[in-house]
C-alpha cells in the first residue's frame, strides 16, 4: 500500500513538533514599510556603495550590539546613534548593528528571531515580528540598519529593511550562502574565514557577483526557483583569525593586493572585534586607534570599520529569561559601553578629517 505523504515508519523520525509560520507576504502586510522608510533605506544603501567605491570620503561605521535581545534598549541605542551621527556626519556614516541571528559553535542562545523571550520557547513567528518592528523603527528614526544573514529562509521576512549585510566567518565558504548573497539587494560584506583565509572571502565575493539559479520560497510561502543577477556590492571584511589579528598595516596591504590581483577594488572593512581584538571587547578601541592612524596617514584601502557596542559595557548570562538582566548589556559577546563608543567614533572622525585636510 502506498501513502500520499511520507510514511511514518521512515520519515520525520526526529521531528518533535511542527508550528506554522505566517508567510513572508502576511508579515510584510502586517508590518509594512512606508514610502518614506523605503526612500531612507535606498539612500543609505547608495551612500554605502559610494563609500565602498571611494566616491564618498566618509568612513562607514557599522556599530551596535553584538546581538539584539531587548527591543527597548535597541531603540534607545538607535536614538543615541542618530544624535551622534549627526554630530560626526561630515566624516562618518554610521550604520547600526541590528543582529537577530547568532551562529553558535556548539549551543547557546541563537538570537531574537529564534528565541524572543529568552526562555527556550522558540516562538520564531513572534521573533520575526519583533525583528521587523525594530528595523521599521530604525528606518522611521532615519538610522540605517545592518545584520548578518545566517538563515536561508528568514531574510524573506526582513532583508528589504537592511542597508548593509554580512556573511560571517563560519558561513563564508557555504555555497548556499554565496548564492543567496547574489539575490540580496543591500551591499554585503564577506568576512575572512576563522582560520584567517582571505582568499575564501574573495572567492565568495566573485561567486556572489554572478547569476545563480536555486530553490527558495516566495513571499507567499511557496517553493519557487529563483534566478538572480548577482550582487555587485559584495566586499571583504577583515575580522582577524583564531591565530591572530589582521587589522595592522601590513595585513591590510596584503589583503588589498589580493583583492586587486583578483580583479576587485582594493577597498575593505576592518572588524575591530572577534579575532582582531582576540575576543576581548576591551581591546576594540586599541584596534580602532590603529585603524585611525592608518586613515590619518592617507590609507585609501580601509572603507569602514565594525564595532560591537551597547549602552552598558561587557556581557551577561541568560539565567531566567529576561528576569534579572541588566538593561542595555549584551547577552552574547562582550561590547564596549556607550561612552567608549563615543570616544572611538570621535577619534575615527578626527582621523578622516585629518586625512581629508592633508
TrEMBL record:
<keyword id="KW-0028">Amino-acid biosynthesis</keyword>
<dbReference type="GO" id="GO:0005737">
    <property type="term" value="C:cytoplasm"/>
</dbReference>
<comment type="pathway">
    <text>Metabolic intermediate biosynthesis; chorismate biosynthesis; chorismate from D-erythrose 4-phosphate and phosphoenolpyruvate: step 1/7.</text>
</comment>
<keyword id="KW-0057">Aromatic amino acid biosynthesis</keyword>
<comment type="function">
    <text>Stereospecific condensation of phosphoenolpyruvate (PEP) and D-erythrose-4-phosphate (E4P) giving rise to 3-deoxy-D-arabino-heptulosonate-7-phosphate (DAHP).</text>
</comment>
<dbReference type="Pfam" id="PF00793">
    <property type="entry name" value="DAHP_synth_1"/>
</dbReference>
<keyword id="KW-0808">Transferase</keyword>
<dbReference type="GO" id="GO:0003849">
    <property type="term" value="F:3-deoxy-7-phosphoheptulonate synthase activity"/>
</dbReference>
<dbReference type="GO" id="GO:0042802">
    <property type="term" value="F:identical protein binding"/>
</dbReference>
<dbReference type="InterPro" id="IPR006219">
    <property type="entry name" value="DAHP_synth_1"/>
</dbReference>
<dbReference type="GO" id="GO:0009073">
    <property type="term" value="P:aromatic amino acid family biosynthetic process"/>
</dbReference>
<dbReference type="InterPro" id="IPR013785">
    <property type="entry name" value="Aldolase_TIM"/>
</dbReference>
<dbReference type="InterPro" id="IPR006218">
    <property type="entry name" value="DAHP1/KDSA"/>
</dbReference>
<protein>
    <recommendedName>
        <fullName>Phospho-2-dehydro-3-deoxyheptonate aldolase</fullName>
        <ecNumber>2.5.1.54</ecNumber>
    </recommendedName>
</protein>
<dbReference type="GO" id="GO:0008652">
    <property type="term" value="P:amino acid biosynthetic process"/>
</dbReference>
<comment type="similarity">
    <text>Belongs to the class-I DAHP synthase family.</text>
</comment>
<feature type="domain" description="DAHP synthetase I/KDSA">
    <location>
        <begin position="50"/>
        <end position="345"/>
    </location>
</feature>
Amino acid at each position: 500500500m502506498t501513502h500520499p505523504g511520507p510514511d511514518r515508519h521512515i520519515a520525520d523520525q526526529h521531528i518533535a513538533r511542527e508550528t506554522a509560520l505566517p508567510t513572508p507576504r502576511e508579515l510584510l502586510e502586517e508590518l509594512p514599510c512606508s514610502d518614506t522608510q523605503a526612500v531612507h533605506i535606498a539612500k543609505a544603501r547608495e551612500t554605502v556603495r559610494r563609500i565602498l567605491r571611494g566616491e564618498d570620503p566618509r568612513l562607514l561605521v557599522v556599530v551596535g550590539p553584538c546581538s539584539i535581545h531587548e527591543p527597548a534598549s535597541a531603540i534607545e541605542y538607535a536614538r543615541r546613534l542618530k544624535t551622534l551621527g549627526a554630530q560626526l556626519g561630515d566624516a562618518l556614516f554610521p550604520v547600526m548593528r541590528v543582529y537577530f541571528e547568532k551562529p553558535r559553535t556548539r549551543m547557546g542562545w541563537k538570537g531574537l528571531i529564534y528565541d524572543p523571550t529568552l526562555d527556550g520557547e522558540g516562538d520564531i513567528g513572534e521573533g520575526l515580528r519583533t525583528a521587523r518592528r525594530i528595523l521599521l523603527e530604525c528606518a522611521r528614526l532615519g538610522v540605517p540598519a545592518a545584520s548578518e544573514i545566517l538563515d536561508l529562509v528568514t531574510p524573506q521576512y526582513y532583508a528589504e529593511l537592511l542597508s548593509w549585510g554580512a556573511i560571517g566567518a563560519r558561513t563564508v565558504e557555504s555555497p548556499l550562502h554565496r548564492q543567496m548573497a547574489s539575490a540580496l539587494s543591500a551591499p554585503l560584506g564577506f568576512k575572512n574565514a576563522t582560520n584567517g583565509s582571505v582568499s575564501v572571502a574573495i572567492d565568495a565575493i566573485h561567486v556572489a557577483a554572478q547569476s545563480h539559479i536555486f530553490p527558495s520560497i516566495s513571499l507567499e510561502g511557496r517553493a519557487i526557483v529563483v534566478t538572480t543577477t548577482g550582487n555587485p556590492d559584495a566586499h571583504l571584511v577583515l575580522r582577524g583569525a583564531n591565530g591572530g589579528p589582521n587589522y595592522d598595516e601590513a595585513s591590510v596591504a596584503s589583503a588589498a593586493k589580493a583583492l586587486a590581483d583578483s580583479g576587485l577594488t582594493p577597498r575593505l572593512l576592518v572588524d575591530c572585534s572577534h579575532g582582531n581584538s582576540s575576543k576581548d571587547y576591551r581591546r576594540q578601541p586599541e584596534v580602532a586607534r590603529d585603524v585611525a592612524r592608518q586613515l590619518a596617514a592617507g590609507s585609501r584601502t580601509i572603507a569602514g570599520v565594525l564595532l560591537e557596542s551597547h549602552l552598558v559595557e561587557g556581557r551577561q548570562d541568560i539565567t531566567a529569561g529576561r528576569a534579572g538582566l541588566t538593561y542595555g548589556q549584551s547577552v552574547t559577546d562582550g561590547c564596549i559601553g556607550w561612552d567608549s563608543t563615543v570616544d572611538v567614533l570621535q577619534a575615527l572622525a578626527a582621523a578622516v578629517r585629518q586625512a581629508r585636510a592633508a
